Amino acid sequence: MSSLLFATPKELTGWLAKLAAGHRVLAPRQEGPAVVFRPQTAEQLAAADAEALLKRSTSSPKQAMLPQSETLVQFTSVKDAEDPSKLTTTLTVPEAAEPTVLFGCRPCDARGFVVLDRPYLEGPLKDPYYGARREATVIVTQACPKAFSTCFCNWVGSNPADSEGSDILFTVVDGGYALEAVTEKGAALLEGAGFAPADDKRQAVEEAHTAAAQGLAPSPDLAGAPAKIARRFTDEAFWTKETVKCLSCGACTYLCPTCQCFTITDEGSQLNGRRLRSWDSCMTPLFTLETSGHNSRAAKSARMRNRVSHKFSFYPERYSGYFSCVGCGRCVVSCPVSLDIRHMVTAAIEGIEAEAKPAATEAAPQPEAEAGKDKNAKGKPKKR
Ligand code: SF4
Ligand code: SF4
């Protein structure tokens, strides 16, 4: 367990303002009814009310690593004056990721990056764009002071003070914030911050974590859920009934911290242009439309089945039981017709007996299920 440090609200915003001299600092900002992560200048941070930076964002922070739209490569081709059939093409890739502080994540948001790391960084092909931003970013997370009615991080083996995926975790205590490094990256960022040691606040921190965890509704038993949802796959009547209200708007996927579908497009002419990667949504009808005209998920029930199954069956089947939903509840809050993934998951597994199956298909040996317990804190910050 590393040391706790204490910062007053003014010291916290002053620290962030100083960091902005050498980093892109992304922090929550209220924009109309939305709270979104935006780059903030040293002046804005110095003048900010710390409370305003602690609001829970309505959209997820995944754009810090996966921008809604990004240039993968720019291309410029020049024709040979003597032989116009010959082209010389120059490819330019974007500059390296800039050092970034992502401030004000919640534990579910930070854990969302761990979910994204598996497909983007752990396969045979690593995504260099995502990887560079991940490497250049320090994640500073606020332990949730209280759970909302739509929060269900406890369903997926987490809790409101989970430090998985974060570099620094801080907790609101009397008069300010108690901060603790989770990784070496986090410890390096806190070095020289000038915050006072606060090991005397350990008990207050633990009490705050326990109180927040107790505010969550109990989790259903999701043991065997991946296999049960897989067995529900061919029950078309079930998926049609669950999806009947869906508008196929895609809000649930665009706001989700773990949804990862993208599309690639080229812009410009054949001689000059750029290749873009942009967010896409598996909930929209054209997502699986092939050039042949065939659409493997033309029905919205098939798309919903895919979305729910990816989160609670396909992903855990592939990645040792970890769900790819982090229980943030954004899809529940923002669905215009109030569809609730919690209801779909519990309805899908209801009445289905778990079959004998390999251990890898069981629900996660979710590592952080105990409220307030930090598996990463083993005497010193972990290396990342
Ligand atoms: S599926 Fe919904 S609750 Fe789960 S991580 Fe995505 S937005 Fe959050
Ligand atoms: S937000 Fe609701 S209506 Fe829109 S695609 Fe998702 S489930 Fe359907």
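^ iron/sulfur cluster complex. The pocket of iron/sulfur cluster (ligand 1) is lined by residues 255-258, 311, 325-331, 341 (CB under 6 Å). Confidence is low (pLDDT under 50) at residues 356-384.
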